[in-house]
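hiii, so i know i said id send this last week but things got crazy w the move. better late than never?? heres the sequnce for the chain we talked about at the cafe, plus the structure i predicted for it. fair warning i was half asleep when i ran it
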Amino acid sequence: MSHKPISPRPFPPPALADVPLEYIIEQLHTLAHRYWNRPETADCVLSMAPE
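okay and structure toks below
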């Protein structure tokens, strides 16, 4: 099985360009408990640049 190297993606993605960043962060916080420490959902990397 070959893996593609991780490459950065634009944030927010184009589909969310008009959504306020505060709302996106709030939603991530709200949903985090569903995914934290669950190996079956640990297939992504979140990378946020400091402001």
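btw Residues 21-35 form the longest helix (15 residues). thought thatd interest u
miss u guys!!
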